[in-house]
Amino acid sequence: MSQAATAGRLVGVRRRRRTGSRSLGPYSAVGLGVAVVGFALLVLIPLAVVVGAAAAGGAQAFWAALANPQTLNAIALTVGVAVGVAAFNAVIGTVIAWVLVRDDFRGKAVLNVVIDIPFALPTIVAGLVLLSLYGPRSPLGVDVANTRTAVTLAIAFVTLPFVVRTVMPVLEELEVDVEEAASSLGATGWVTFRRVVLPSLVPAISSGAALSFARGISEYGSLVLLSGNMPNQTEVVSVRVLSHIENGDVASAAAVATGMLVIALLVLTGLDLLQRRVARRDS
Amino acid sequence: MIREPRPLRLALRLVVIGYLALLVLWPVSMVVVNTFSDGLGNLADAFGNPAVTSGLRLTLEVAVWSVALNLVFGVGTSLLLTRYEFVGKRTLSTLIDLPLAVSPVVVGLALMLVYRRDAPLGGALYDLGYQIIFATPGMILATVFVALPLVVREVVPVLQEIGDEQESAARSLGGTGWQVFWRITLPAIKWAVVYGVVLALARSLGEFGAVKVVSGNVSLRTQTATLVVEETYANFQQGTAYAVALLLTLAAVACITVVSILRPKEARA
After folding, report:
1. Which domain holds residue A112?
2. Chain A contact for B117, CB < 8 A?
3. B42-268 sits in which CATH class?
4. ipTM
């Protein structure tokens, strides 16, 4: 259930009780200070330094690093695959959530655990296991190693839980009497699903898809063994950043990394806004 | 509740089982098949390889540190975010999620730029005798970074849900802050903390990209188990790679199984 809670909360599906927040006392003020300093030293300052390193060479160097053809190809591939997989996840994730919540069959509990495996499995192991089934020594006779299909496969694997785990809690809490009212008024099952159920799932589906996109564009570990990292063909943005680092070209690495950070921030801000809108509608 | 027609229901069930089998179950089962393809030979080779045993030991050390730091930071931050008012609270709450969306390679790059020897902060720490980058502390930092939101995201909603009536009551009866935390707050959030810790553990055992950048990836010294998998596979020691991957897979599956067994307990309580 790993992502269930995390993702479910991002769309604010839990009912909240009012808490009277207090202003800080001496101990909690020290606690806040320690937490903020720790967070700054670990996350904020390092990320700011990346942006600083990208800006240090000037705007021209920054754009030159991003506009390098090999980098552009990596960006196009990564964003394209991440968008495609997120859209696919929006559909298959909703279907999986629907089956896990509404259907009942032997082995359902196992599937429920299987959904979370991609979240807990080390990414390098994810790449290794996909390679052993879909690589050169595949028992299925399917070899997609070092192709764009492999990139898609790896990203579909690591992003599997997101939509499922955001949609499931919403589906579980849905009021069934609305559906019954719709069908007692003569709506067919499909019409009820499309007009009554689906609209209440849309915020959860979109935040799940956004999380899946954010995870997809930042993926690295599962692609190392599987995609071959061929320039202009199967090289994703994270691999590009790493090869800049390994070549000692910190400025270019920082420039591409800054681009990725901007996208990550945009996705998070969008999710925050979405969550607030849903929370307002609930109250 | 709407009921889809029986054929559609069976079709959807089939699609889901087929998709999950092809994407997750079958591939993951291959790690078992390939590890035991020649009996116990691969596992024996792996455990006889000093690079593997040192990698496993290092992974464990890094994960324990990372989980401990995340536990303290996560519970503390969750209390601050739910029980207190301060300037910048919403910003902190949004930024806490940042590590979920940042590429591990970027995490590694960011830490390297600040804590390497020729950077001001890294240099100062080095002069004090603490090497961060290309050493264990840097790997712990990277792992803490990637697992950072997990405890907070588990604990915050529970703190919001239980409200603070009991805590105020305890305080008005003269309980100190510490007593209120130990006797009232902690028992109420105990399971959320456990899930957060188990998830952070799974994430920490498996971190790869960020650790690869900050560790320097030196066999026997700064190479964790996930880095050993990559190197042994690339060096045509596939059997060893599968054996180490199997251990990591078992740890991951154990973590999510523990969480899914524990979780219904909370619902019943």
Report:
1. 59-282
2. no
3. mainly alpha
4. 0.91
